[in-house]
Amino acid sequence: MNTWFTSDCHMGHSNLIIKHHCRPFDTIEEHDETLIQNYNSMIKSNDIVYCLGDFAWKDPKKYLQRLSGCWILILGNHDSKDVYTAGFQFVKDTYFTKINDQYIYMSHYAHRVWNRSHYGSIHTYGHSHGQLEGIGKSMDVGVDCNNYYPFSFEQIIAKLKDKPILDHHI
Q1: Spatial CA neighbour of 73 closest among 65, 59, 81, 83
Q2: Three-state helix/strand/coil letters over 73-132
């Protein structure tokens, strides 16, 4: 079993693609199919996937049922009430857990400090579409930051291993 992180899929969100031209796709269908193929090429059926918000504009169940893995959603500003019946393992505003002896705080939004940040916990976030660099042991795990693929837990650990621990008590 592997653990994956992603954010800001924006499935079905045509304004993101067509009006704002934020991503290199000609249609929302091309965008959605590319993301689904990219995810399924990496994620296996028993893997855990943390999506840190903005999963789908509408009808999240339509997309979730096509994806491998056990998906957990941390709510974003574009997630509708439909996410509660879409088939996610669970849905939370934020989430704090321990994976392989590493504490991880997850939120759709970037934080300057977070639970146990002064002890080396990691903070993963989305929302900023690669436009907001992390501080300390934090990083944007949005699809815009990894060529439209999810980040593995190992990638996150490797990327943040030499980053400083933030101690806001000093």
Answers
A1: 83
A2: EECCCCCCHHHHHCCCCCEECEEEEEECCEEEEEECCCCCCCCCHHHCCEEEECCCCCCC
Residue 57 lies in a domain: yes
Q: pTM for the full model?
A: 0.94
Number of separate domains in the chain: 1
CATH (domain of 146) = 3.60.21.10
Helix (H, G, I), strand (E, B) or coil at 163: coil
Does residue 30 sit within a domain?
Answer: yes
Please name the amino acid found at residue 59: D
Phi and psi, residue 123, nearest 5°: -120, 120
CA distance 164 to 137: 7
Domain that holds residue 73: 3-160
- What pLDDT tens digit does each residue of the chain (170 aa) get? 999 999 999 999 888 776 666 788 888 999 999 999 999 999 999 999 999 999 998 899 999 999 999 999 999 998 889 999 999 999 999 999 999 999 999 999 999 999 999 999 999 999 987 777 888 999 999 999 999 999 999 999 999 999 988 776 65
* Sheet order of strands, 70-74 included: 91-92, 70-74, 48-51, 3-6, 151-152
In this structure, is residue 166 part of a structural domain? no
